[in-house]
């Protein structure tokens, strides 16, 4: 008997494919982030950090099984290194902490709820983990408490809206094409359509 929490081959392939795409995009986002930080400082850069959590939330929202958020983020981090990141160590550490943060938020709900507020919380946990990691890794204690607080606020907003809401929007768009019909998200959306049609016929 197959475990309901064990990943099957189809889920692994899709998770890996999505994560690889995001890993490539993550590297480009780093260069864009450096430009933004040069112009706006760390607070402006903080508004971009949610993007680095999206692989974990997109995959977790589609597949809805324990461990997916963390594994997806690690695959994305590994891809980022393979395609040209010069900071392999820090990328892997950030990939782990970000993925773990996103994973913990989903675990709080026992992996039973993937509503938008839960996904936004997952994004916020991911960016909070990012903040804690870079605070010590890159010496952000050099900034004043005002700037540090503003940066944290910007990162949490980015986690909620860019990572949480944005990931849901991307996955829902993919689901509408029918390519995710064999995954949990596709099955849930199909059930919702059936219930809606049944209500409209009453």
From TrEMBL:
InterPro entries for the chain: ABC_thiamin-permease_prd
Keyword Metal-binding: no
Membrane-spanning parts: 12-32, 44-63, 68-86, 118-140, 146-166
Domain of life: Bacteria
Pfam families: ABC_cobalt (PF09819)
The protein's name in its UniProt record: Energy-coupling factor transport system substrate-specific component
Organism per entry: Mesobacillus foraminis
Keywords of this entry: Membrane, Transmembrane, Transmembrane helix
